[in-house]
Amino acid sequence: MSATGFAQLPEPPYYAVIFSSQRTPGDNGYDEMADRMVDLAHTQPGFLGIESTRGEDGFGITVAYFDSTENIAKWKANAEHRQAQAMGHRMWYQHFELRIAKVERAYGMGRPAAG
Amino acid sequence: MSATGFAQLPEPPYYAVIFSSQRTPGDNGYDEMADRMVDLAHTQPGFLGIESTRGEDGFGITVAYFDSTENIAKWKANAEHRQAQAMGHRMWYQHFELRIAKVERAYGMGRPAAG
What we know:
Two copies of one chain form a homodimer. Helices cover 31% and strands 40% of the residues of chain A. Chain A has helices at 30-42, 69-77, 79-92, and strands spanning 14-23, 47-54, 59-66, 93-108, 111-114. Chain A starts with 13 loop residues before the first strand and ends with a strand. The first copy, chain A, is α+β, with helices and mostly antiparallel strands. In chain A, 30% of the residues are buried. In chain A, a hairpin with a 4-residue loop joins strand 2 (47-54) and strand 3 (59-66). The longest helix of chain A is centred in the C-terminal third of the chain and has 14 residues, at 79-92. Chain A has a single domain, classed as Alpha-Beta Plaits. In chain A, strands 2-3-1-4-5 form a five-stranded antiparallel β-sheet. Chain A contains three helices and five strands, in the order βαββααββ.
């Protein structure tokens, strides 16, 4: 997956889609699709940012941020994203967990709390 | 950091502390402290689980789950954790972002939505 770095987000509240996953061995087209999904996410209504990483053990966490649960539902229903989800189920993920959460407070190194 | 795998969590609602960070080069005692903090987190009131990973580029995401914002505040204020936080600021992190979020819905591979 392409490096995403830190998301530049507005003040809370906003929503997080926390996706943790364990990859199956081998690439099988995963990296290309993951890059494509990051690009596609950026074009979605209400998309705010994304952070993603994966360790050498194949365990990864991606957090995508949106302005509303309605726009998260639209992203989930996006046709190209649905195709990627199906391939994830079939080939790429041994297991995954997905949690949708409302961000209430946020702060960063050298920046005080907001929200 | 020790492998955490997937957290086994109750049905929502519960809270997530989403901590994303960019490590400075070199270990400087980080791995040992990170393992210790995971162990310590498990002993905290209201702690539900933790998932954590870091890529080869040094960018990592850790999500710790608690039952309430009150218990997140207690975890933040824990004396040994505060010492680790100070060392994180001084030595281990080039940058970090922390977001506190209320998990409203959750589902996993082969498990329907809850919450």
